[in-house]
């Protein structure tokens, strides 16, 4: 693991499959290896369009979030400020996610739409792809259940964005440690 990189595990919950038409409802992030350095945000939906099945998985009430959620521009500004604070050592923040293409698409879209730029740059690191390559596995062996059975994390996913970001961070940390121990 490079000392110049700071891995940030991010998980989001959304009202549907794509940004722009559906809303990011919550975001959890933590520093890999330091789960106490974390941020959790619940956002006001920025679109009325939603997939009832996706919303049911999140456990959110969309009407309630329109009252209690943070407006997306403020949420993304808070995330950018948090990233700047945890990256004070000059290390480059690297977005890490389990199925990163999904979470990344929302985070990237929201950063560009509401803040004007994405502090992560233009790339993300997918834990599934890392796991596959680092341990010479087939794609079918990269399910989170397979990772958990093999790596034995202490935490588990709950569909709360912060809980899941911490779970992902733990999985990734265990992968990095196991990979470093290989000849």
UniProtKB/TrEMBL annotation:
Residues 6-181 form the Exonuclease domain. InterPro entries: Ribonucl_H, RNaseH-like_sf, RNaseH_sf. It comes from Pseudomonas pudica. One of its GO terms (molecular function) is exonuclease activity. This is 3'-5' exonuclease. Keywords: Exonuclease, Hydrolase, Nuclease.
């Amino acid at each position: 693991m490079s000392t110049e990189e700071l891995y940030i595990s991010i998980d989001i919950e959304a009202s549907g499959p794509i940004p722009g038409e559906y809303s990011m409802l919550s975001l959890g992030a933590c520093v890999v290896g330091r789960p106490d350095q974390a941020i959790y945000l619940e956002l006001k939906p920025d679109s009325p369009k939603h997939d009832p099945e996706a919303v049911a998985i999140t456990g959110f009430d969309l009407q309630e979030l329109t009252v209690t959620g943070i407006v997306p521009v403020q949420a993304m500004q808070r995330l950018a400020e948090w990233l700047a604070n945890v990256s004070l050592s000059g290390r480059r923040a690297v977005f890490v996610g389990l199925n990163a293409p999904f979470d990344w698409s929302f985070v990237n879209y929201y950063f560009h739409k509401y803040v004007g730029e994405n502090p992560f740059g233009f790339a993300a690191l997918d834990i599934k792809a890392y796991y596959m390559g680092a341990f010479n596995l087939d794609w079918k062996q990269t399910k989170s259940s397979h990772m958990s059975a093999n790596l034995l994390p202490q935490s588990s996913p709950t569909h709360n964005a912060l809980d899941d970001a911490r779970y992902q961070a733990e999985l990734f940390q265990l992968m990095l440690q196991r990979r470093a121990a290989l000849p």
